[in-house]
Amino acid sequence: MDEFSFINSIKQSTYKQSTLLKGVGDDAAVFRQSSKDIVTAVDTFVEGIHFSRKTMDPFHIGNRALAANISDMAAMGASPVFYLVSIVIPSHWTEDELSQIYRGMQSLAKQYKIDLIGGDTVSGNELTISITVIGYAACGKARYRSTAVEGDIVFVTGTLGDSIAGYHILMNPGQFINKNYYYRRHQMPDPRVAFALELEDLQRVALNDISDGIANEAAEIAEASGVSITINYQQIPTSDSFSQFTVNQQRNWPLFGGEDFELLGAVPKRDWPLVQQAAQRTQTMVTEIGYVDIGKELVYLQEENGRKPLNKKGYTHFKQVKL
Amino acid sequence: MDEFSFINSIKQSTYKQSTLLKGVGDDAAVFRQSSKDIVTAVDTFVEGIHFSRKTMDPFHIGNRALAANISDMAAMGASPVFYLVSIVIPSHWTEDELSQIYRGMQSLAKQYKIDLIGGDTVSGNELTISITVIGYAACGKARYRSTAVEGDIVFVTGTLGDSIAGYHILMNPGQFINKNYYYRRHQMPDPRVAFALELEDLQRVALNDISDGIANEAAEIAEASGVSITINYQQIPTSDSFSQFTVNQQRNWPLFGGEDFELLGAVPKRDWPLVQQAAQRTQTMVTEIGYVDIGKELVYLQEENGRKPLNKKGYTHFKQVKL
């Protein structure tokens, strides 16, 4: 396949977004959006750091890379509309595998009606996927992590720790219950866009998506908002078959596992019923797990024997620094 | 330096663009633009393929990567406003070198008043810089390569072949005239934004920036517009001291050298004086080098002894495929 047939194979013949004026095929893409706020982020994934071929097919690699970006839009209360993809591809990857990566993205793009409007594919030594996603939010309704206030209810969507559980099962084949469920949570996570958009009527909701584990994400909200957050350990939702894992795994995965791409939020108490209604309308599980307090931008874990600071176990020293 | 001090070192304390609502520090950046079209592109640079430390300091690597992206905006008739940077950085690069890369970008960003609004820094084995740039164009005035029409004048800004000449001098130290000029053209190219914006009143102008050599760029315009383009070899502008290079170099560099980041354009004959006035107002050299003809989407080179098809000497097989 030469470069032109490759471009044709990934270039969309039609675009779904009516605000797009020019897609792939010029020096840049062009769109027009006069009534909404525009939201944009970039996320980069390097083989061996962010994903492994041991646990993911090329299709999954592409799918999950785009899912992580779409999840950033959900965390902003935005609807994803466009994406641009830059791939560095080692020569030992076949063109079929490369196509599979794009197919993994296309499958999700189709579901969300988002258009591929630019990017490039470059040869190199290390598979690297960098995706820029662009979304639209209702004017003034982009959701910031800096808006949590004392007395807010802290909630989370879905169940936590499933992605790392899936990774564990894939890396340690054996007798596990609900394998396919965990595989899917690791390989093809579902961003919570529909739920986040359903919160549009709320005056205020602080949102983060859970890419680095709830301990980290709660700390980001606490720091940005200048508050403390207390999480009730017993209330953290996990999936039904989670008891099959060791006690340590059951404890650490939901707190630090990351990449579940669920949403962590904080809303005024009076709006909690609205959050529950939004959850119901979008068939999203939502659980109250804690509360916002005044204090020193710390996260606490409340357990039966008392409340202790919950430390972040985060990335350090350029493994990944997200701006 | 830990990740937070690093983020603080590259995070802007203030932003210049009034349309920005949220910069670095959340899951995504947010901006609002109700009166202009929005233009966006991504370009990726891999060490050893797109640049070499033999001819560039880290400062230049960052500077030129952003310049190439800004040049895409110029080629669209757009004003650059924001950029997002994703860097994969090998562990043998020092944090000081990494900072220098960002400083190279910041220097250009300051000049163009554009804001860094997102990105990430990831460790990996191969230095890779992927930049997403966002710009604004007057409504309906984004410049497409598909708009050239029979009878148009074909023009180019500046002089061609200087970047590869600079690369050559850096790789083959010796007696050369105007070394610093050529170094600068290779290491710190000047995108033609001011000139492109000054063309705003023109009804129609097809534009491409010269990243891959004029033979390629002319072919892109010819193909997208369904026309032929004839370039008069004698009219191709080169710098004064270009005669110091070999006959082959003098011939091939301006045609195929690439990365000069000048603009190649096609305008109706009647508008040529307007182009010349825009050039004068922005102190940009502009030269008529050919014309648009009906025909088979081919580029011809007109020389004293006749007119022959000019073949692209382009990238193939995923060295780089730009969408």
TrEMBL record, chains A, B:
<comment type="function">
    <text>Catalyzes the ATP-dependent phosphorylation of thiamine-monophosphate (TMP) to form thiamine-pyrophosphate (TPP), the active form of vitamin B1.</text>
</comment>
<keyword id="KW-0067">ATP-binding</keyword>
<feature type="binding site">
    <location>
        <position position="102"/>
    </location>
    <ligand>
        <name>ATP</name>
    </ligand>
</feature>
<feature type="binding site">
    <location>
        <position position="27"/>
    </location>
    <ligand>
        <name>Mg(2+) 4</name>
    </ligand>
</feature>
<keyword id="KW-0808">Transferase</keyword>
<dbReference type="InterPro" id="IPR010918">
    <property type="entry name" value="PurM-like_C_dom"/>
</dbReference>
<feature type="binding site">
    <location>
        <position position="315"/>
    </location>
    <ligand>
        <name>substrate</name>
    </ligand>
</feature>
<feature type="binding site">
    <location>
        <position position="145"/>
    </location>
    <ligand>
        <name>ATP</name>
    </ligand>
</feature>
<feature type="binding site">
    <location>
        <position position="27"/>
    </location>
    <ligand>
        <name>Mg(2+) 3</name>
    </ligand>
</feature>
<protein>
    <recommendedName>
        <fullName>Thiamine-monophosphate kinase</fullName>
        <ecNumber>2.7.4.16</ecNumber>
    </recommendedName>
</protein>
<feature type="binding site">
    <location>
        <position position="259"/>
    </location>
    <ligand>
        <name>substrate</name>
    </ligand>
</feature>
<dbReference type="InterPro" id="IPR036676">
    <property type="entry name" value="PurM-like_C_sf"/>
</dbReference>
<dbReference type="Pfam" id="PF02769">
    <property type="entry name" value="AIRS_C"/>
</dbReference>
<feature type="binding site">
    <location>
        <position position="50"/>
    </location>
    <ligand>
        <name>substrate</name>
    </ligand>
</feature>
<feature type="binding site">
    <location>
        <position position="209"/>
    </location>
    <ligand>
        <name>Mg(2+) 3</name>
    </ligand>
</feature>
<feature type="binding site">
    <location>
        <position position="211"/>
    </location>
    <ligand>
        <name>ATP</name>
    </ligand>
</feature>
<dbReference type="GO" id="GO:0005524">
    <property type="term" value="F:ATP binding"/>
</dbReference>
<dbReference type="GO" id="GO:0009228">
    <property type="term" value="P:thiamine biosynthetic process"/>
</dbReference>
<dbReference type="GO" id="GO:0000287">
    <property type="term" value="F:magnesium ion binding"/>
</dbReference>
<keyword id="KW-0479">Metal-binding</keyword>
<dbReference type="InterPro" id="IPR016188">
    <property type="entry name" value="PurM-like_N"/>
</dbReference>
<feature type="binding site">
    <location>
        <position position="72"/>
    </location>
    <ligand>
        <name>Mg(2+) 3</name>
    </ligand>
</feature>
<dbReference type="InterPro" id="IPR006283">
    <property type="entry name" value="ThiL-like"/>
</dbReference>
<comment type="similarity">
    <text>Belongs to the thiamine-monophosphate kinase family.</text>
</comment>
<keyword id="KW-0460">Magnesium</keyword>
<keyword id="KW-0418">Kinase</keyword>
<comment type="pathway">
    <text>Cofactor biosynthesis; thiamine diphosphate biosynthesis; thiamine diphosphate from thiamine phosphate: step 1/1.</text>
</comment>
<feature type="binding site">
    <location>
        <position position="72"/>
    </location>
    <ligand>
        <name>Mg(2+) 2</name>
    </ligand>
</feature>
<dbReference type="GO" id="GO:0009030">
    <property type="term" value="F:thiamine-phosphate kinase activity"/>
</dbReference>
<feature type="domain" description="PurM-like C-terminal">
    <location>
        <begin position="150"/>
        <end position="293"/>
    </location>
</feature>
<feature type="binding site">
    <location>
        <position position="212"/>
    </location>
    <ligand>
        <name>Mg(2+) 5</name>
    </ligand>
</feature>
<feature type="binding site">
    <location>
        <position position="120"/>
    </location>
    <ligand>
        <name>Mg(2+) 1</name>
    </ligand>
</feature>
<dbReference type="InterPro" id="IPR036921">
    <property type="entry name" value="PurM-like_N_sf"/>
</dbReference>
<dbReference type="GO" id="GO:0009229">
    <property type="term" value="P:thiamine diphosphate biosynthetic process"/>
</dbReference>
<feature type="binding site">
    <location>
        <begin position="119"/>
        <end position="120"/>
    </location>
    <ligand>
        <name>ATP</name>
    </ligand>
</feature>
<keyword id="KW-0547">Nucleotide-binding</keyword>
<dbReference type="Pfam" id="PF00586">
    <property type="entry name" value="AIRS"/>
</dbReference>
<feature type="binding site">
    <location>
        <position position="72"/>
    </location>
    <ligand>
        <name>Mg(2+) 4</name>
    </ligand>
</feature>
<keyword id="KW-0784">Thiamine biosynthesis</keyword>
<feature type="binding site">
    <location>
        <position position="43"/>
    </location>
    <ligand>
        <name>Mg(2+) 2</name>
    </ligand>
</feature>
<feature type="domain" description="PurM-like N-terminal">
    <location>
        <begin position="25"/>
        <end position="136"/>
    </location>
</feature>
<feature type="binding site">
    <location>
        <position position="43"/>
    </location>
    <ligand>
        <name>Mg(2+) 1</name>
    </ligand>
</feature>
